[in-house]
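During the second half of the funding period, the structural biology subgroup turned its attention to how the target accommodates small molecules. The most pressing case was S-adenosylmethionine, which had performed well in the primary screen but for which no bound structure existed. We therefore specified the complex as follows and requested a full 3D prediction, including the ligand pose.
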Amino acid sequence: MLSSLFNALRARPAPQPAAGGAASARGADPAVAQAQALVLEARQLADLGRLDEALAACRAASRVDPDLHEARMLAAALHLPGPNYLDFLAHLHKHVKPANYVEIGVSEGLSFRLVRPGTPAIGVDPAPRVDYALSAGSRVIEATSDEFFATHDVRAELGGPVALAFIDGMHNFEFALRDFIALERLAERSSTLLIHDCYPLDRETAARERATSLWSGDIWRLVLVLKKYRPDLAVHTLALRPTGLGMVRRLDPTSTVLADNYAAIVEEFLALDYAVLEADQAGALNLFPNDWERIDALLDAEIQ
Ligand SMILES: C[S@@+](CC[C@H](N)C(=O)[O-])C[C@H]1O[C@@H](n2cnc3c(N)ncnc32)[C@H](O)[C@@H]1O
C-alpha cells in the first residue's frame, strides 16, 4: 500500500521554480544531487517498511536542500500515511450532503470543485486561479476573507446558516482565527468547520513566513486556542496527508469568547514556540486517525 502511495507522489508535479534560470542552476548544484540520492534511499527504506529510517532520510534531504519538494512530500506521506485531504473532502461532501458550503482560500479550485452540483457554494480568495466552469450554485468572490465577511450577508446569500466550511486562506494563525470566528457566527450547532494544515510536518514548513514549497504555516496554534478557550467545542485534527485537517463541531454561533479576547489570544499564542508540539504532537493537536468509518461515525454522533 505504501509503495502505491509513493508512486502516486512520484507522479505529482512539483511547483515550478520562480525563474527559468533557477532550474538549471539547481541542476548543477551538488547539494541537490545529494538530497535527491537521500530521497531515493528514503523510498527504498519505505518500500522495505523501515518507515522511521525513511523519514530520517527525508529530513536529512531537506537539511541538505531545503527546496526539494519531493523530500517534503515523501516526509508528509510518512508522517501522515493514507489518503489525502482532497480524497477525504470528496467523501465528506457525499456523506454529509451539506445544505451549503463556504471555502476560504480557493486557489486553483482543487477543493472547491468537490462540492456537489446544485449546492449553494461560495469560494473566497483575493487571487483565485480557477480555470474550469463552476457548477450550478457555486461562485468565487475575489476578496480577502476579512473583506468578504465585512461586506456580504452570507446567510442570505446561502439561504440559511453555513452548513460546511473549509478554512484554507492565509496561513498565519490569526487569519484562520478570524475566519473561524466569522464562520461560527454564521453557522449553527450541527454545522462543520474544517481548518486545513493543523498538523505540521516540521518547524521549517510551520514557519510564519513561507520558505518551503510545502507550507502549513502556524495554523496549528488555532487548535491550541480552541482547546483552551472553547472547551465546549468538539475539536479533532484528522490525520490526513499532507498536514492534517482540523474538524470542529458542536458550534455555538452566540459565543463571543474568541472575538472578545482576540488581541490577547493572538499575543498569547504567538509567544508559543514550535517546541511545544515536540513532546506529544498527536495529543496536543487531538489527532484522530485517517479512518473514514470512524470519522463518519464521529460526524454522525456529533450531529446532536
Ligand atoms: C493553499 S491555497 C488554497 C488551496 C485550496 N483550498 C485547495 O485545497 O485546493 C491558499 C489560498 O489562500 C488565498 N489567500 C491568501 N490570503 C487570503 C485571505 N486573506 N483571504 C482569503 N484567501 C486568502 C491565496 O490566494 C491562496 O489561493
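Two results from this model are relevant to the next phase. The pocket of S-adenosylmethionine is lined by residues 104-107, 110-111, 124-127, 144-145, 168-170, 175 (CB under 6 Å). The first helix runs from residue 2 to 11.
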